[in-house]
Amino acid sequence: MFDQLLNGFATALLPLNLLIALCGCLVGTLIGVLPGLGPTATLAMLIPLVFSMPPATALILLTSVYYGSMYGGSTTSILVNIPGESASVITTIDGHKMAMQGRAGPALAVAAIGSFIAGTFAVLMLTFVGAPIARYALLFGPAEFFALMVFGLCTVASLTGTNVTKSIIATCLGLMIATIGIDLVSGAARFTFGNPFLQDGVDFVVVAIGMFALTEVVITAREVHAGTRAQIVKADKVWISWSEFLYSLPAIVRGTVFGFVIGMLPGAGATLSTFIAYNLEKRLCKNPELLGTGDIRGVANPESANNAASGASLVPLLTLGLPGGGATAVMLGALMMLDITPGPLMFEKHGAIVWTLIASMYVGNTLLLLLNWPLVNVFARVMRIPPKFLMPTVLVISTIGVWSLSYSAVDLVLTGAAGVLGYYMRVHKYPVEPLILGLILGGRLEQAYRQALIISAGSNMIFVEKPISLGLLIGAALFLFLPMLLKRSKQFVAAQESAEAA
Amino acid sequence: MDIAARGLLRTRIEGLVILLVAGGYLWETFNIPDFYQLPDTPGPKTFPELLGLVFAVMGLWLLISPSDIMARIRAKRDGTAAAVAAEPSAAAPSGGLLARIGLDWHFVALWAVVLAYLWFMPDLGFPVATFLLLVLFTRLLGEPRWHVLIGLALAVTIVVYVGFKYGLNVRLPLGVLEFLPI
């Protein structure tokens, strides 16, 4: 394993890959800093670019952007009181108060250190846990994979959004869109309405760009019109004293561990993990009454949790092929387009790529720490670019992204339709992530379903007779009913509200 | 019509639309050709039929769900007075047809510009369409100075066109500018 990891480092440290990682970290941080534009939309926009790259390089770019955006979110939370993306909502509570008290420097420093520790921990865990999980998952047959994907879809449906019915509707719609096109088994055209452009199916990039990038542009445009601008606090010196570091270290450790554990679960994602970690921190730490008044632990804890969780979400993605949310779903789609199917076989078949990716995450973490420390004030200044100049450009670049996929006007029309639908869904609280997830997993879900039924000669009992599959299906059902139980918990309601507000 | 009742009505309409889509989807599964298929194995129709059924059940649930009614009634009892005071326009829509269905001209204009861009870009050509989009969209976002608008739109169009065409080898349509030797 270690020689594989060393080989990975050798590839990750190639000048081109290092440069790509650096660019990815920079772009990611900028995306994280800019409110409105989230990691999912950015990843979707980047996919057309990564086609021309070698798979390892493409993966490095995507993960470093994903990582960087998690990192950058804290800067705006602390300095402007606007979370750059939803996972940084909790950081604003203590972070902005610290900035107002003139302690922006330590807040930014602890966010950077906490993120670094958490990120490194997550990669370490991925290094040691990834291959064994993948080896275990090799025992899975089609029935188990079907159950696993149903489990993933159900946890995502249950944990994103406020209403399980609406989440199931979104998931189902995604799966239905995935059935459009030529059926790979029989060659029958399905739902194409005789349109040759639909025979290849609807590309998920088209829907993802429509639903994330386009709607974000319009939603931001609406906010600009309504007139919400914020005051930016300037950080003088990004530094942290030794005693402050020791004071926040337990919070970092707890945030890291909880964030990682929660982040492994599909659907929980970085946002929910920050909230749960922060609330646990309130119960576990000394002097909990200080949290919320500008306490440095209130920055250290959620920032570590969100970085640990985003690292953790790569574990099910790489070992089981199960994405946990919008951003990882887009990454899965990108991998499939590069002809790499994440899953248990990935460690065997594409071992070099996986280990390069893991090595590049170590590199990326270090790069982010080195980048963010001196450049925090530069990033904060990016916030001042008025959205009225930025948003139209985002629109143009997303359009090019869709156009460059297959140079088809039909794709552009579908993007527009997805944008309008996505806008309606967002405004009326239908979560968009489950739809994208359904769209991406749909093909493999159906394939697993049909293979399982071929094995069982048409009997659906196969899903119940195999213990792993039965367990996963029961787990899936439990998750669907979970929100009903959790609704009684005030913390959960607050978590959902904060997730929704972002 | 107050907010609670309006929200309820919207849920019902959404349920109806979902039911109709599910119906259309299931209807379309009949048009999937049956090619040779092993006996006792699911064909290309099985999975879509399953999905259509789940979708239809969900739509039906939105249409008739009782818990939803309870929530709405509760919201009505607790919050209507405050909500109406805060949003008088929502309670008693005034203005034109757009305002009555909860839209305003700015919203419609934003979407119209975006969709028109996606629709006309391949024919009109990337440079012209993008220039127009940038001018109109930035104007809608509240930039009043025309020299800034036109200068910025021109600059972004050129930078993006050159960057993607020569930097990343993306074929972008020239459209009406086809005669130019670029």
From TrEMBL, chain A:
Keywords of this entry: Membrane, Transmembrane, Transmembrane helix
Keyword Transferase in annotation: no
Domain of life per record: Bacteria
Every DUF112 domain range: 18-437
Transmembrane regions: 12-34, 46-67, 107-129, 136-161, 167-189, 251-278, 317-340, 352-373, 394-425, 468-486
PANTHER family: TRICARBOXYLIC TRANSPORT PROTEIN
Protein name: Tripartite tricarboxylate transporter TctA
Naturally occurring in which organism (per UniProt): Rhodoplanes roseus
From TrEMBL, chain B:
Xref: Pfam families: TctB (PF07331)
Alphabetical list of InterPro entries matching this protein: DUF1468 (IPR009936)
Keyword Magnesium: no
Keywords annotated in UniProt: Membrane, Transmembrane, Transmembrane helix
Taxonomy, superkingdom: Bacteria
Stretch forming the signal peptide: none
Ranges for domain DUF1468: 14-173
Tagged with keyword Thylakoid: no
Regions that span the bilayer: 7-27, 47-64, 148-168
Protein name as annotated: DUF1468 domain-containing protein
Upper lineage: Bacteria, Pseudomonadati, Pseudomonadota, Alphaproteobacteria, Hyphomicrobiales
